[in-house]
Design goal:
Elements lengths: L1 H28 L5 H29 L5 H28 L22 E2 L2 E2 H23 L5 H24 L4 H5 L7 H19 L15 H20 L7 H29 L4 H15 L8 H25 L8 H19 L13 H33 L6 H6 L1 H6 L8
Helix pairs in contact: 2-3, 2-4, 2-8, 3-4, 3-5, 4-5, 4-7, 5-7, 5-13, 7-12, 7-13, 8-9, 8-10, 9-10, 9-11, 10-11, 10-12, 11-12, 12-13
Amino acid sequence: MNEINTWKRNGWLLGAFLLGAGSLSAQEASPSLNSGDTAWMITATVLVLFMTLPGLALFYGGLVRSKNVLSVLMQCFSVACLASLVWVAVGYSLAFSGGNDWIGNLDKAFLKGVGVDSLSGEIPESVFIMFQMTFAIITPGLIVGALVERMKFSAVLLFSALWLIVVYAPAVHWVWASEGLMFKWGAFDLAGGIVVHATAGVSALVLAKMLGTRTGFPNKLQPPHNPGMVMIGASMLWVGWFGFNAGSQLAANGSAGMTMLVTHLSAATASLTWAVVERLKTGKSGLVGVVTGMVAGMATITPASGHVGPMGAILLGFLAGVICYFMCGLIRNGLKIDDSLDVFAVHGVGGILGTLLVAFLGHESLGGVGGDFNMLAQFGVQVKSLAITIVWSLVATVAIVFIVKKVTGLRVSDEAEQNGLDFEEHGEAAYTLD
């Protein structure tokens, strides 16, 4: 009898052990919240929003004439508000909720099913939504630089809303959603060379061409009214970009640290390179030039920041400073397109350059941290991913502009352009001198 009781007791103990082990295994398999990663992602989200409000707004505001500065601030601020609501309504769901190779579905429209305990990996889904929302805010904000001083405020808002749904959300899905076509291909784009800079740059160029030039373009336009404001805004962009790139690692770890380092190195190198090139070409280096070079370096490192090492970042920054500088002149003086604040030349060209070169500079044999991969095969993936994105951005933007033109009209009147959009569109003035 004692032996039987012993066997029973041992059997119960074994069963309890197996059940406990199974329960522990299930707990390990299910995702759990990582408080360190969550704290970093909340911080990164604030940094990226800081890029637009007030960083980008001040950067662009200082570049225009004084009679248009408030209109630019108004456009950046209002686009941020509008993009937030569009992202919650349909943008997030179309980008990240299931679907197929090309587009998500509407299962999470208006954030259906997202609660306090919902997780995305090891961070709250609400934090991931908000982080991605800041990208959806700044990307159409970049396009504002191509349309300043001549586009109706109502047209800016309608264009931005349609563009987010038709161009941006699909591009996010292709590259960053696990169901997306380019994600499956293994495209390298940590923080948006394809998703942000290529889409915004190409769309900005198309919009600028269809919108037409400002009166006096290209030789009779006044220089930026406040280079100091430009520098302050650019500095905010620089700080915020650490959240933009390093935050895209979605974790507080060594990869995020390396991403932050290479981001800084590319920006610094591009800024100095631009200053040297500008001095060789014109005899002087200007403040607007060095900060524009910094932005070009940031745009170029963005897709590559998760894969290149420090030396690769310096090389990318050097190339950005040279190539983006000359592209500004080509677009303005060669193609005669009034991309007013050089959105395509800086963001579009920079993002494309970084997206292509990461296929080589990200390899461990060339100092990268992206591991060992077939460089030529990866280059092919980068090229076809860019090609699809560029073609779609171009075609969709043309269609959106036609719709906006029919609904609201595109341009202000010649008289309004002459008087300035601050007063004509908003009834205010940035500077009142008695």
